[in-house]
Sequence to fold (103 residues):
Amino acid sequence: MKDIISESIRYWEARRLVFNAVWAMVASGITNFHHESLSALTGQSVAGLLLMAMVANSLYCFVYLAEIFIQMSDNQQVWKQRRRVVLIAGTILAVAIFLITHD
Fold:
C-alpha cells in the first residue's frame, strides 16, 4: 500500500504543475479580458480567483482516491497507461467549471 501511495504522489504531484499552469492561463486570460487593465481588478475579484484555484486544487486531490483503488485492482497496468486521459479530462473539466462560474 505504501508503494502505491508513494507512486501516486510522485505521478500526480508532478502533473499538478501542468494542471495549475493551464488553469492559471485560462483564468488570467479571461480575467484580463473582462477587466481591461490590471488596475481594474478589485480585491473581491482576486479573492474569487484564489477561491476558485483552491477549489480546483481540492478537486484535483480526488484523483488520489481513484488511483489507490484502481492500483489495488487487476486493472493496474491499464490504469497506468491511461491516467494521462484522466489528467486531460480533469483539466478540461476544471477549466469548464471556471468558465461557467466566472462572472
